[in-house]
Amino acid sequence: MKSLFSFAFFIFISAVSYSQDLRGQWNGSLHVQGSELKLIFHVAKPDDVYKSTMDSPDQNAKDIVVTTTSFNFPTVRFEISSIGAVYEGVISNDQATITGKWMQSGVTLPLILERKKMP
């Protein structure tokens, strides 16, 4: 009985861990000095390592390389060395939003990212 419980628990934990995934498009907006600045993160996972780029459409910036993308459920971290920025957040249990903070040039701003729903 004990081994059956252990096996079932292992299967449950494996299924939950396997379903945690950061891949996809994440959209959000920074509110800076009365204006809105849209940010879009594109996250892929080739070769079991997360790779990301960021777009800032309001600044006509596209495909900015995210130097480091880390995801250790529920913590998400994007580091963008080229602009001296870091985003740290916590992904929701349903993996639809990341609530966190954008840090750049000594300024910290709240930023909520929402996963773009696929058609």
Tell me what you see in this structure.
The protein has 1 helix and 9 strands. With 119 residues, the protein is of the alpha+beta class. The protein has one domain: Lipocalin. A 9-stranded antiparallel sheet has the order 4-3-2-1-9-8-7-6-5, with no helix packed on it. A hairpin with a 2-residue loop joins strand 8 and strand 9. The protein is globular, with a radius of gyration of 17 Å. The termini are far apart. About 13% of the residues have low confidence.
* Helical content (DSSP H or I, runs of 4+): 10-25%
Following the backbone from N to C, one meets helices and strands in this order, namely: HEEEEEEEEE
**Which radius of gyration do the C-alpha atoms yield?**
17 Å
Ends distance: 45 Å
What's the number of extended β-strand segments?
9
Total count of domains: 1
What profile does the largest beta sheet have? 9 strands, antiparallel
Beta strand %: over 45%
Number of helices: 1
Please write the CATH class name.
Answer: Mainly Beta
Summarize the structure.
The protein is an alpha+beta fold and 119 residues long. It has 1 helix and 9 strands, in the order H-E-E-E-E-E-E-E-E-E.
